[in-house]
Predict the structure.
Amino acid sequence: MATILASYKIPQNIKPSWARSDGFIQDFWEQAFDCSFKSADELEDSEKLCTGEEKLENLPGTLFEMSMTGQSYNIYNAVHAVLPLSICTDHCHPGFSKQKRESEKFCCYDCAPCPEGMVSYQKDMDACFTCLQDSYPNNDQNECIPRVISYLSYKEPLGITLAVLAVSFSLITVLVLGTFLKYQDTPLVKANNRNLSYILLISLLLCFLCSLLFIGQPGKLTCLLRQIAFGIIFSVALSSVFAKTITVVLAFMVTIPGSRMKKWVGRRMANFIVLLCSLLQTITCIFWLSTFPPFPDMDTHSLNTKIILQCNEGSPALFYCVLGYLGFMAIVSFTVAFLARKLPDRFNEAKFITFSMLVFCSVWLSFVPTYLSTKGKYTVAMEIFSILASSAGLLSCIFFPKCYIIILRPTLNNREKMVRRKNGK
């Protein structure tokens, strides 16, 4: 460093004629060379006239050091660090950066606004910079503002409303289940396999409760459980509905003379359908968990002003496989129930299952485009709403007509009345 400074010489072509705009050089020149720039008439006897051709190297080192010392080099840097103003432009304010003008002096530049998403917080900055992921530029692009953490919380009105709906529907389901258990020996409850009714009611109860997993700050456990629980529990519910539909069809076929379908009617057949259909969904969910499990994630790109805390599904393809399987089961149940809706039986549930599957399919068909078009907590809220609406559709269409007869029209809940209705009397 010392060698470099020693070899760095001060320019020797400095002339007092530069003093047109700077009086400092003339003052220095008069003191250094003990001369004056006054006119000849104004000179005193002891003064000599400055010619302007004096040599700086003739001055003693104590008065003027020609080589660049460490101290003078620091002063040199300090002076240059202060962007005397350019003669071509004014200061560039925060929110702008310097942009060099082509084919002009190096000190000539324009002030260009910072690009979108970037800021400059000082005057005359050479370039704008990007805010950190936890902040975003303000409107003037001269400051980074901390982002707001966003997720569907129990403390906000939307989260509270959905949680209250989930708990309310759960309590209603418990009341319906209690009613069926209390009147379990009546013909209406026994019709179309009461065990399937119990399985369906319990699965609907769990469906309502599993929607609570979607509310609150996403964690590792909740991210793993919520979609898997939703997929498996809903598959049990739809399997029960499908088994109920098949029971109606087989019960009618048994009444046909010479039919060999009697051996297929009973609990074993219904249980087999529920287990098989639920098992297929369970295998898919286990494969999902073992390969690309969901995990907590942060979305810093969708919204500039917010950091979205969410559950990354791990594999969108497997998520849509789980959802697609539920849709397939709903369509099959709807088709079979629609074809069997007019079959005579003591209490034909097929027409009520038809309405419930129509509601189910309508809800989830509208869910997919909405799910893809929304961001953040509203995506989660939409899925919760779909779970609650489709579960409530199954509960109301299948069980409310029965509860109406059991509670308000008990005279119709006997074998004689049902036989008469079956025979059209």
